[in-house]
């Protein structure tokens, strides 16, 4: 097999995550154009906005409402959109190999490839659908909605995504029995009043919450850390915590003990000064993995990439200590938490809808 020729690029943006989207929009608003030959590498021609996924799976949105086409944004900035997936990165040489064999050598590199749900030991006896990539989950959901719904559907996870998805799936697949299995108390990072309200909501909607750790699947049975084996499920949706992609762990980049790329407060790799990382794939000081933080890092990332290209000093990213969370409960309402505050109501869903649709319309270029 002949090897694809090596292409040089002054700037490679890898992954069209939330941070890169915000950064690209910032460059457009400021009239900054990255050097000719810059590339954005992403597996799909559009970027999905995770905040609207529960609304999509509840049947409230259409896919085109929740995705941003990348070509117009890239074309506007003179960036080439490369549809492909990073398979291998050599950080010392800033060499990228994509899954189809194409290779790039980048002078400056920015990674925003998100994360994937934790892997599970399994024997293939049960369909397992991870929440990311979203497009795969959406395709599966359409099959379920169009007449092939599972009788018993399990969801693994205890965070906001698992909670929202359980309620969304219950709303759109009323004949399926949904069970949620989480290794920590439900919504453990949120105020206890919100946790209790969330548990009550699940109970009212007929969704079981089992506090136990899913460790694997054998012969169609879900194996739990307590020794319990659950049977009778037709499929499992994995919405467990963020796990780093393998390609970043073998790259030579310094990573934290979990495998996330270690960066300083300027979003610059601690081991390779011409590589930046942001969002869920990175370990950013004082930030945790969620869409809100990924979005907030966008401005600093755009400014610092521009500063590196123009040999200017870098800025520090200052995360806010409190994060606003709005969780769609697929019944016309949403739960809200902000630091120790918790609330719920139709107004919270209205607010969430407003914020989500504003994000999409702001980043979409016709
Ligand atoms: C259902 C659901 C609902 C959620 N709701 C919320 C919410 O309301 N609020 C909140 O704060 N957080 C929410 N989250 C968490 C949020 O999705 C993530 O924290 C956020 O998406 C992380 O953004 P990111 O910028 O790191 O990358 P992502 O948005 O995950 O995007 C990564 C991009 O990189 C691409 N990519 C992946 N691998 C490669 C590769 N090898 N090469 C090239 N490109 C690659 C992907 O295709 C994708 O386009 C939710 C998550 C889920 C699953």
From TrEMBL:
<keyword id="KW-0285">Flavoprotein</keyword>
<dbReference type="InterPro" id="IPR036188">
    <property type="entry name" value="FAD/NAD-bd_sf"/>
</dbReference>
<feature type="domain" description="FAD/NAD(P)-binding">
    <location>
        <begin position="77"/>
        <end position="292"/>
    </location>
</feature>
<protein>
    <recommendedName>
        <fullName>FAD/NAD(P)-binding domain-containing protein</fullName>
    </recommendedName>
</protein>
<dbReference type="InterPro" id="IPR023753">
    <property type="entry name" value="FAD/NAD-binding_dom"/>
</dbReference>
<dbReference type="GO" id="GO:0003955">
    <property type="term" value="F:NAD(P)H dehydrogenase (quinone) activity"/>
</dbReference>
<keyword id="KW-0274">FAD</keyword>
<dbReference type="GO" id="GO:0019646">
    <property type="term" value="P:aerobic electron transport chain"/>
</dbReference>
<dbReference type="InterPro" id="IPR051169">
    <property type="entry name" value="NADH-Q_oxidoreductase"/>
</dbReference>
<dbReference type="Pfam" id="PF07992">
    <property type="entry name" value="Pyr_redox_2"/>
</dbReference>
<keyword id="KW-0560">Oxidoreductase</keyword>
């Amino acid at each position: 097999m002949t090897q694809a020729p090596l292409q040089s690029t002054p700037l490679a943006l890898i992954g069209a995550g939330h941070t890169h989207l915000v950064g690209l929009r910032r460059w457009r608003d400021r009239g900054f154009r990255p050097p000719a030959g810059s590339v954005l590498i992403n597996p799909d021609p559009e970027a999905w906005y995770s905040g609207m996924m529960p609304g999509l799976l509840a049947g409230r949105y259409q896919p085109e409402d929740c995705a941003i086409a990348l070509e117009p944004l890239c074309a506007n900035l003179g960036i080439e959109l490369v549809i492909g997936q990073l398979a291998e990165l050599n950080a010392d040489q800033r060499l990228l190999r994509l899954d189809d064999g194409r290779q790039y050598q980048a002078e400056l590199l920015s990674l925003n490839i998100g994360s994937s749900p934790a892997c599970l030991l399994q024997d293939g006896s049960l369909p397992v659908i991870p929440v990311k990539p979203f497009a795969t989950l959406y395709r599966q959901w359409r099959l379920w909605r169009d007449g092939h719904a599972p009788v018993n559907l399990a969801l693994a996870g205890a965070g906001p995504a698992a909670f929202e998805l359980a309620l969304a799936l219950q709303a759109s697949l009323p004949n399926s029995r949904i069970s949620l299995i989480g290794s920590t108390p439900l919504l453990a990072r949120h105020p206890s009043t919100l946790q209790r309200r969330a548990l009550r909501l699940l109970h009212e909607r007929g969704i079981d919450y089992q506090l136990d750790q899913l460790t694997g699947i054998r012969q169609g049975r879900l194996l739990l850390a307590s020794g319990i084996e659950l049977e009778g499920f037709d499929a499992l949706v994995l919405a467990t915590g963020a796990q780093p992609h393998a390609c970043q762990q073998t790259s030579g980049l310094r990573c934290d003990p979990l495998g996330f790329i270690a960066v300083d407060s300027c979003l610059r790799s601690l081991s390779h000064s011409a590589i930046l990382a942001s969002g869920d794939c990175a370990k950013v000081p004082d930030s945790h993995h969620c869409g809100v933080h990924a979005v907030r890092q966008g401005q600093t990332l755009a400014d610092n990439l521009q500063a590196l290209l123009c040999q200017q000093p870098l800025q520090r990213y200052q995360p806010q200590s409190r994060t606003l969370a709005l969780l769609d409960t697929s019944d016309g309402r949403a739960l809200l938490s902000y630091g120790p505050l918790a609330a719920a109501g139709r107004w919270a869903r209205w607010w969430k809808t407003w914020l989500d649709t504003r994000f999409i319309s702001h980043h979409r270029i016709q």
